[in-house]
Amino acid sequence: MSSTGRLRKKYARRHVAARCGVYGAAILAALVCALPFLWSLVSAFKMNRDLYDPESNPFLFNEPATSDHITFLLNDTPFLTFVWNTLVVGLVVVLLTLALSLPAAYSLARLNRPWGTTMGIAIFMVYLVPPSLLFLSLTRVVVGLGLDDSLWSMIVVYPTITVPVSVWLLIGFLKAVPKDIEEQAMVDGHSRLGAFLRAVLPLVFPGIVAVVVFTFTLTASEFVYALAFVSSSPTMVVSTGVPTQLIRGDVFFWQSLQASTVIMAVPIALLFNLFLDRFVTGFTMGAVKT
């Protein structure tokens, strides 16, 4: 065999070994990331004596599986009410965030003003203020508006968190869209608003998807404001309602807690994976094109 043939075989073996190493590392990373979810799923169906036995394997059913804890979660707690409240608050906040952040980002990205960069940085700096410094003053605002202990308290306050970072993200993405596209639409007879809706908006759809996913996940997981503004169970969301109902003093309903985690995580994970390509595109292009 010639030296060229030997070199080709050598490089082919290296290529196969490198591919196997990459796939092996990816599978290992996926398993490590999936272990908490797998543990939650198995724990949700475990009996008490199986869960609390230190000799039992936490990832296996050492005793027969049971669905009593899921039945308890769905029938004996207002969990479905918490899920509905979370869905309502999340969707309304997403709509408000898009309605406020899209015009703001467009004006800062397209209208050349000397204060544009400073204003963009100032808007983003608002997002960096910790909620623990604001919830007392915002509580007074909510009480003054008569929105305490209602879903509207969270709907009004959450955009103060989501709008700044959404504006910053969309600014970078709008700057990635060439101005020529918009100018051509205006030459064809469209107004600035019409050019934005017909020519620019479809091109920034990945950025909009990123904003929607970010906003919804943030509102669904937020805890401080939800705890400060709402105290009655019928208006609680999942982040505060589940701990309130399933942690009673020193008694923890672990299986029901894990079941609630799985029930909430699966739809969000499926939705995230459905728009994963556009979500990643939105964040990466919005990050590099600023």
Backbone CA Rg: 25 Å
Strand content: under 5%
**Roughly how many Å apart are the termini?**
55 Å
**Number of β-strand runs:** 2
Decide which structural class fits the backbone.
mainly alpha
Listing every helix as H and every strand as E from the N terminus to the C terminus, the arrangement reads HHHHHHHHHHHHHEEHH
Low-confidence stretches: 286-290
Instruction: Describe the strand arrangement of the main beta sheet, using strand numbers.
Output: 1-2
Based on Cα principal axes, name the global outline: flat
What proportion of the residues is helical, as a percent range?
over 70%
Describe the main β-sheet briefly.
2 strands, antiparallel
Mean pLDDT comes to: 81
Description of the structure:
74% of the residues lie in helices and 1% in strands. It has 15 helices and two strands. A two-stranded antiparallel ribbon has the order 1-2. Strand 1 (247-248) and strand 2 (251-252) form a beta hairpin. The longest helix is centred in the N-terminal third of the chain and has 42 residues, at 3-44.
What attributes characterize this protein structure?
290 residues, two-stranded antiparallel sheet
Structure summary:
It is built from 15 helices and two strands. It has 290 residues and is an all-alpha fold.
Strands, helices and their partners?
Layout: H1 3-44, H2 48-51, H3 68-75, H4 79-110, H5 116-127, H6 135-144, H7 151-157, H8 159-175, H9 179-187, H10 192-200, H11 205-221, H12 224-229, H13 238-246, E1 247-248, E2 251-252, H14 254-274, H15 276-288
Antiparallel strand pairs: 1-2
Helix pairs in contact: 1-14, 3-14, 4-5, 4-7, 4-8, 4-11, 4-13, 5-8, 8-11, 8-15, 9-10, 11-15
